[in-house]
Every structure is written in C-alpha cells, then in structure tokens.
Amino acid sequence: MLRKKFIRMIRDFICIIGLLIISPFLFFAAIAIIIEDGMPILFTQERIGKNQSIFNIIKIRTLKIGAPNIGTHQLENEYKLKCGKLIRKIKLDEFPQLINVLKGDINLIGPRPGLVSQIDLTQNRNAKGIYEIKPGITGLSQVLGYDMSDSAKLAEIDKIYIQKQSLYVDFLILISTFIPLTKKYLIKMIS
C-alpha cells in the first residue's frame, strides 16, 4: 500500500514537471494548428481503459477538422495537418495525456488504449486479458514499432508486457520512447 502511494506520488510529480517543461512547445504547436486549421487545439476521443471502461483521452489535434474517428494508420493524408506531421513525429501530441494520468484514467506505461471502433483489437486484447491493467501513454508495442494495424500481434506484445512488467521494464520503455538506442536493452529484458 505504501509502495503504491509512493509510486503514485512519483508518477504525479513526473506528470506535473513534464507538463511544465513541455508547455512552451505546446504553445508553439497551438499557434501552428490555429494558423493551419483554426480551433480547437486539443481534442478528446473515447478510448477503452481498464476493465473495458470508456474514458476520454486528451490529445493535441494533428488532423483536420472533420477527419473520421478512426485510427490514424487508416487515414488518408488529406486529413492530416502539415504541422501535425512534425507534432506527431516528436510525440508532442501525446503530452496532454499527462492530464489523463493525473486523473487516473491511464498510466505513463502500459498498452496503448484503443478506440471504441477498433472491434478486432478489443476482441484480441480481451482474449489475452489486456484489460486487466490500465493502459498507458507509451508502451512496449510502440517502442518496438508495432502500431494498431495488426491487432493480433499488438495483443501478443501487450501480453508479453504484462508478463514481464516491472519498474525496470517500465523505466526502459519510458527511456526507449525518447531514446531509441536503448531499445536493445529492452528487447533483452523481455526475451
């Protein structure tokens, strides 16, 4: 119990510091989005969380207003903002999810929460018991380069994460999200 409270305090501290550090970059991203496509800057989207509960994830908008509510890997380029390409490349669009972490919807590390419309992904994850833990902003699948286009493989990798989950593995995933060179250590850990 005490360990969980300590971990939660560290997680919340990381989130608050992260939001403070990244806020100037979020400001410039907001200006770029407004110039290219107007308001809003942020958007919320229904995602599936722990025990298949539905929550609203907060992200920076990288798609044009009116883009379909489907996975970005399924979208045509015509729906993508030009500035959104850079925002996504440097993962700036993910940082508002720190608010979701503070709210308790997700963790920093865990399986990425899928869209409600991704039925195959939901079924594959449900069969592997993935919904027994909270999803995360980043996870093993993302670091290893798997997106949501192959739902069966994604569920397999998510299951490996659950089986190997530890503070050290979470630390490696967090570092590997920003420094890809550390990926080889993570691969050794889960092998």
Q: If you had to describe this structure to a student in words, what would you say it looks like?
A:
The protein is mainly alpha-helical and 191 residues long. It has one domain (2-190). It is 52% helix and 10% strand. The protein contains 8 helices and 4 strands, in the order αββααβαβαααα. It has helices spanning 2-37, 82-89, 97-103, 119-128, 140-144, 151-164, 167-178, 183-190; strands spanning 42-48, 54-60, 107-109, 136-138. The strands form 2 sheets. Strands 1-2 form a two-stranded antiparallel sheet. Strands 3-4 form a two-stranded parallel ribbon. The longest helix is centred in the first third of the chain and has 36 residues, at 2-37. It is globular and about 45 Å long. It starts with a helix and ends with a helix. 29% of the residues are buried.
Topology, element by element:
Elements: H1 2-37, E1 42-48, E2 54-60, H2 82-89, H3 97-103, E3 107-109, H4 119-128, E4 136-138, H5 140-144, H6 151-164, H7 167-178, H8 183-190
Parallel strand pairs: 3-4
Antiparallel strand pairs: 1-2
Helix pairs in contact: 1-2, 1-3, 4-6, 7-8
Strand order of the largest sheet: 1-2
Shape: globular
Total domains, how many?
A: 1
Number of strands: 4
* SSE arrangement, N to C: HEEHHEHEHHHH
Alpha-beta classification: mainly alpha
Regions with pLDDT < 50 over 5+ consecutive residues?
A: none
Number of helices: 8
Share of helix, binned: 40-55%
**Rg over alpha carbons:** 16 Å
- Classify the beta-strand content into a percent band: 5-15%
Mean pLDDT: 89
Query: How would a crystallographer describe the biggest sheet?
Result: 2 strands, antiparallel
Distance between the termini: 30 Å
